[in-house]
Amino acid sequence: MIRDFGAIALCILTAYLVAIAASVDGIFFSGIPIILLCAIVSFVTHWMIAVPSLITSSEKYFDFTGMVATLLVVLTAMFALLSSGAEASIRSVFVASFVSVWTLRLGIFLYKRIVKAGEDSRFRDIKKSIPKFLMTWTLSALWVFLTTVNAITLIALNPLEPIGIFFIMGALLWLLGFGFEVIADKQKKHFSEQPKNEGRFITQGLWSVSRHPNYFGEIILWAGIAIISLPFLSGWQFVTLASPVFVFLLLTRISGLPFLEDKAEKKWGEDKDYIEYKKRTPILVPFFGKKHQ
């Protein structure tokens, strides 16, 4: 219990320090720096929805909450910018749209998936402990803030300079990543819906060139937003470039690949076809990267 509450406190402190470091001069709302306000919105949104979820011991709205919090964070940044009397730049509008489209698509997809499955197996043990379950919701709030902090900092900076090479490169990279994630999710969904594929692993489409193409797409799209922001950051604002790094570490070291690879190994580790699939297919980057034997 003490460790869980300590983790909650650490999440709050981390968000506060990053928000202060990323703050944009002159952009406040009701006296609160806009980046800090966005962090507050993320945590409050998660905690409000966590209360009934903790009472009912349900993770049904966990991923949906992340979507709601992300939308509210982006709306907060845009609202504060427009309230200051500024006209939103094309970069601010595009980045706000990119993040909103991404979270709506992913949030709805994940919500439909858990409704169909009935549960998220990751929470089977976690939700038995209220402090641990609350810590997980708080960690999600930090995830939303750290993932979007680079984007909302750019929105607050609101650069009015003409479109340049960094914007074009970043936007194209975002489109590539988003397309990869959407197509990969659709291919897996279609595969799993076929009765003949029950209990089997997918090796078709993008899954033939990467064992986790949806994660590859997500990492790439956040890197695209970072590239768009790069020419306009200064001083401590460069800390917001941690956004794509955070996504990469989260998906490859914490809750993404390790969990799914271990789950797959337990299920198909002795399957000759799966062993061959692992040998020929990179774990993340299509066509490249270390292939696990």
Which keywords apply here?
mainly alpha; 293 residues; two-stranded antiparallel ribbon; 10 helices
Characterize this entry briefly:
The chain has 293 residues and is mainly alpha-helical. It is 69% helix and 1% strand.
pLDDT < 50 runs, ≥5 residues? none
> Could you tell me how far the N terminus lies from the C terminus, measured between alpha carbons in angstroms?
39 Å
* Secondary-structure-derived class: mainly alpha
User: What global shape is seen?
Assistant: globular
State mean pLDDT (0 to 100 scale): 90
**Given the structure, what is the number of helices?**
10
Main β sheet profile:
2 strands, antiparallel
Structural notes for this entry:
The protein is mainly alpha-helical and 293 residues long. Helix content is 69%, strand content 1%. The protein is built from 10 helices and 2 strands, in the order αββααααααααα. The two termini are 39 Å apart. The mean pLDDT is 90.
Write the SSE topology.
Layout (H helix, E strand, L loop, with lengths): L1 H21 L5 E2 L2 E2 H23 L5 H22 L6 H28 L12 H28 L7 H29 L19 H17 L12 H13 L2 H12 L3 H9 L13
Antiparallel strand pairs: 1-2
